[in-house]
Design brief:
- By secondary structure, the protein is mainly alpha-helical.
- The protein has one domain.
- 75% of the residues lie in helices and 2% in strands.
- It is built from 11 helices and 2 strands.
- Strands 1-2 form a two-stranded antiparallel ribbon.
Length: 257
């Protein structure tokens, strides 16, 4: 017989992870706010002075969804990967595996905390942006939906990275060498229509383009690819990560040895 979820265990993991965030609240919130200001200075002032508007949206406002998505991806991955890697690194993960917790409860605790941290930081970036540009969110429900799905999906991906990594160096490889370039090449600061025809086709092979496009549509009603396709891409990525997490806990890969 399937037992009910151990919500006390989930809450314990979640609270432990969030406590680390609250202890460094100033650093956690000041850093993205400062980065946002710098992006507006560099991209908004330097490039925005040459690009008046993109599809009727001022360039300063146009880059806001891309800035938020860039930070959400980075923060989701780093928070979730560190959260599970550290107990694996010091050996306390075995105590967790011996506790009356299923893999579902462990994942909900770690991934839920990482996603919540990312969404709080996304809110800080959005609030900071309002001091520089006028932003009106046309589809607030879908904005929250895309934000939540992306934060959860990449927190799951970061969780997988934390299990995969054998040392601190490996923990940084994918965010630095893969995720950040994909975001910059995924239309965070431009539309695919600005590229030559050949590179437009190449850009549409980048999965991050679909995330940024759907999220930007929720703000301004403009998108590089159909919104339904963006939503399908996020759900597929989420499903893939969930399947991989299930496989890891089923086999014990990189956990029990």
């Amino acid at each position: 017989m399937n037992r009910a979820l151990n919500w006390r265990g989930v809450r314990t993991i979640y609270s432990h992870e969030m406590a680390r965030f609250w202890r460094t609240l100033w650093e956690s919130l000041a850093s993205p706010a400062l980065s946002t200001v710098l992006y507006f200075v560099v991209f908004g002032a330097a490039i925005g002075s040459r690009i008046d508007a993109v599809e009727g949206v001022s360039y300063g406002a146009f880059i806001v969804p891309g800035l938020i998505m860039l930070t959400v991806l980075q923060q989701s991955i780093s928070n979730a990967s560190f959260g599970i890697f550290f107990p694996k690194f010091i050996g306390t993960i075995y105590e967790m595996l011996a506790a009356p917790l299923s893999f579902v409860e462990i994942v909900i605790g770690y991934v839920g905390a990482a996603a919540m941290k990312s969404m709080i930081i996304a809110g800080v970036i959005l609030i900071t942006s309002w001091f520089f540009v006028d932003i009106r969110i046309q589809h607030p429900f879908w904005m929250l939906a895309f934000l939540t799905l992306t934060a959860v999906s990449f927190s799951l991906f970061g969780f997988l990275m934390g299990i995969w990594a054998k040392d601190w160096q490996q923990l940084q490889i994918i965010p630095m060498m893969v995720i950040t370039p994909l975001v910059f090449l995924g239309g965070a600061f431009y539309t695919a229509d600005m590229l030559p025809p050949f590179w437009q086709g190449v850009a549409k092979l980048n999965p991050v383009l679909y995330l940024v496009s759907g999220f930007r549509w929720s703000f301004f009603g403009i998108a590089d690819v159909p919104v339904g396709l963006s939503l399908v891409a996020v759900v597929l990525f989420l499903s893939l990560c969930m399947g991989m997490v299930w496989f890891i806990f089923r086999t014990g890969w990189r956990i029990r040895n």
